[in-house]
Design a protein that fits this description.
This protein is α+β, with helices and mostly antiparallel strands. The chain has five domains: 61 residues, no CATH class; 171 residues, P-loop containing nucleotide triphosphate hydrolases (Rossmann fold, 3-Layer(aba) Sandwich); 91 residues, Beta Barrel (Elongation Factor Tu (Ef-tu), domain 3), CATH 2.40.30; 111 residues, Translation initiation factor IF- 2, domain 3 (Rossmann fold, 3-Layer(aba) Sandwich); 97 residues, Translation factors (Elongation Factor Tu (Ef-tu), domain 3, Beta Barrel). It contains 17 helices and 34 strands.
Length: 691
């Protein structure tokens, strides 16, 4: 007998030990497997109940064995872990009913962003963003692009703060870097010649340059913007920019005024101030550059320079001879009278402006004009404003870049470098830049690609945002637009030109044509010759191809002949606009005008077999003509309108019956006539309408 140290009852070691069930026979593999199955069944995963000893029994239960699990005096209770799992399983992932606190985030908003990306940055549902836009009257999809202002409005309305960023950081340091005063040196003045069409701008420039550019212009008018550099009698160099005077070339004149230092306003002494003269004055005022008035054609017998000076006062231009501060020169470009005086005035004005630039830095400039040359590729006329441009430089202009292959002067000579205020033709761009783009030299091709990729992406995103903003309109707006455009005819066109500025001017002039019934629609506009793809597009859309100073290649001509596509060539913008205007006028419905011929009174009705009713009438006023329109009036009420089918005088058919004579008449498809009815005879004339 053994007594435990805890004071419990003694344990008799000699007493026979109770054997467990099945202890008297040897165990087999089947018994082991059966035991494992029973144990596995008792501890099956997912079962919430196990056999444990009774509560209040032996607290030091120890390990759970097969024997303890199968004892009959044990009861099943749920463990704490099982209870927690059951509660979690029943409640699922549902949170509490209390609303969660809304988090305010700082949302980074670029220039354009999709609705999905904006919702992700705010940690909001995209459907909530779309619902907000619907309340604002915009119907947008989750993939549509919105601009930064709209995105900021959405984010702030949802309780977030906004930080605006711009991808334009890649352009930092590209333009307008300050120069040290010690590095500045004098540069030639840039003078823009502006004025009304046919006032002698190009002739004046020819007189200065001693050339004859005007003889090569189609129709005797300038339709391109040109840049030239000449030497004055004093030895100074001056850069001249010649702008067209036609009304369609407004943007060309605006570009010339932006890059200039001095504006020379040419006014014909026999024509005085005209619409484009006023426009040139406004461009000069907007650019805040000094003005010199050149009164041209004073050699003509009907020249009146004093009238020009007084007319300019109405537009706040007061010349020196009338007590103002604007220089004026009376000259004649044809006889070269006072040309030297004009150059002296330009030199005086340039000296007062103290024009300087740093030539020892990467070049900057502006694209004056751009074209696509078949042999040389894209060619851009660039006015260098700062720095010096050299062959081999990597340049960026708008969304195009390239390495300068050659620099050509205004005379066609190859140049080794282009200092400030020098206009040059630049060869080497990978595409035709747009007129007015700023040009800059960058240090590597990687930087050039980065800048141009950003600009291409920006242009595409802005266009997409503009398109979606137009599409995201209210139902009332869409119904109104459909009602306005219902029945409107379109005149599709495809425009190709020699230079970017001419194409721009043509498209602008064509957009102004039309009214509520018909309008022009330019499907495609570009620089270069007409190719086969242009003809294919015109064939698919039923458009007319217009070539301005360009021609179609052989494949395009053959394709146009097969498809029946019309190609029209022009070299004068007057003729182009007039022809398109006349063609669009043909789509207008003609105006119908009614001309009264005469009246007649029915005296008696005769019913003739196989013929019908014939009215015996007397002509009361004017004449009655066969085949014209008639109106039957009974008791001052019009009861029928139609045509006069038969007109007889006695037994003979006649074309007309004069006043006071009697005749017989019948009407087309109408027999309800009575004595006493009045017949009005009238002619309907269709008048062709014009825009």
């Amino acid at each position: 007998m053994l007594r435990t140290s805890t004071g419990d009852a003694p344990i008799d070691l000699s007493a026979p030990r109770r054997a467990p069930p099945g202890a008297g026979r040897p165990r087999s593999d089947d018994d082991d497997r059966a035991g494992l199955r029973r144990a596995g069944g008792a501890a099956k995963p997912g079962s919430a109940e196990v056999r444990v000893p009774k509560v209040g029994g032996d607290k030091s239960r120890g390990r759970l064995t097969l024997t303890n699990a199968l004892e009959a005096d044990a009861e099943r209770i749920r463990s704490v872990a099982a209870f927690r799992r059951r509660v979690q399983r029943m409640s699922g992932n549902r949170g509490s009913n209390e609303p969660k606190e809304k988090l305010s985030r700082e949302v980074v908003v670029p220039e354009t962003i999709t609705i999905q990306e904006l919702a992700n940055r705010m940690s909001e549902r995209a459907v909530d963003v779309i619902r907000f836009l619907m309340k604002q009257g915009q119907m947008l999809k989750i993939t549509d692009v919105v601009d930064a202002d709209t995105a900021q409005l959405i984010a702030e309305d949802m309780g977030h703060t906004v930080r605006r960023v711009a991808e334009a950081d890649v352009e930092e340091g590209l333009f307008n870097l300050p120069d040290d005063d010690g590095a500045l040196s004098p540069r030639p003045a840039v003078v823009t010649i502006m004025g009304h069409v046919d006032h002698g701008k190009t002739s004046l420039l020819d007189a200065v340059r001693r050339t004859n550019v005007v003889s090569g212009e189609a129709g005797g008018i300038t339709q391109h913007i040109g840049a030239y550099q000449v030497s004055t009698p004093s030895g100074a160099r001056v850069t001249f920019i010649d702008t067209p005077g036609h009304a369609a070339f407004t943007q060309m004149r605006a570009r010339g005024a932006k890059v200039t230092d001095i504006v020379v306003l040419v006014v014909a002494a026999n024509d005085s101030v005209m619409p484009q003269t006023i426009e040139a004055i406004n461009h000069a005022k907007a650019a805040k550059v000094p003005l010199i008035v050149a009164i041209n054609k004073i050699d003509l017998p009907d020249a009146r320079p004093e009238r020009v000076k007084t007319d300019l006062i109405q537009h706040e231009i007061q010349v020196e001879s009338l007590g103002g501060d604007v220089l004026e020169v009376e000259l004649s470009a044809k006889t070269r009278l006072n040309i030297d005086k004009l150059l002296e005035s330009i030199a005086l004005q340039a000296e007062l402006l103290n024009l300087t630039a740093n030539p020892d830095r990467p070049a900057e400039g502006t694209v004056i004009e751009a074209k696509l040359d078949r042999g040389r590729g894209p060619v851009a006329t660039v006015l260098v404003q700062r720095g010096t441009l050299r062959p081999g430089d990597i340049v960026v202009a708008g969304s195009e870049w390239g390495r300068v292959r050659a620099l050509l002067g205004d005379t066609g000579a190859t140049l080794k470098e282009a200092p400030p205020s020098m206009p040059v033709e630049v060869l080497g761009f990978n595409g035709t830049p747009e007129a007015g783009d700023r040009v800059a030299v960058v240090e590597s091709e990687a930087r050039a690609r980065e800048i141009t990729d950003y600009r291409v992406r920006q242009k595409r995103d802005i266009a997409a945002a503009r398109g979606t903003s137009g599409a995201g309109r209210s139902l009332v707006d869409m119904m109104r637009d459909l009602k306005v455009s219902a029945g409107r005819k379109e005149f599709p066109l495809l425009v190709k030109g020699d230079v970017q500025g001419s194409v721009e001017a043509i498209v602008g002039a064509l957009d102004k044509l039309g009214n509520d019934e018909v309008r022009s629609r330019v499907l495609l506009s570009g620089v270069g010759g007409i190719n086969e793809s242009d003809v294919t597009l015109a064939q698919a859309s039923g458009a007319v191809v217009i070539g301005f100073n360009v021609r179609a290649n052989k494949e395009a001509r053959e394709a146009a002949e097969r498809a029946g596509v019309e190609i029209r060539y022009y070299n004068i913008i007057y003729d182009l606009v007039d022809d398109v205007k006349a063609a669009m006028s043909g789509l207008l419905a003609p105006t119908r005008r009614e001309t009264m011929l005469g009246t007649a009174t029915m005296l008696e009705i005769f019913n003739i077999t196989k013929v019908g009713k014939i009215a015996g009438c007397r002509v009361a006023e004017g004449t009655i003509e066969r085949g014209q329109h008639v109106r039957l009036i009974r008791d001052n009420t019009v009861i029928h309108e139609g045509k006069l089918s038969t007109l007889k005088r006695f037994k003979d058919d006649v074309k007309e019956v004069q006043v006071g004579q009697e005749c017989g008449m019948s009407f087309e498809n109408y027999q309800d006539i009575r004595a006493g009815d009045v017949v009005e005879c009238y002619r309907i004339e269709e008048i062709k309408r014009t825009l």
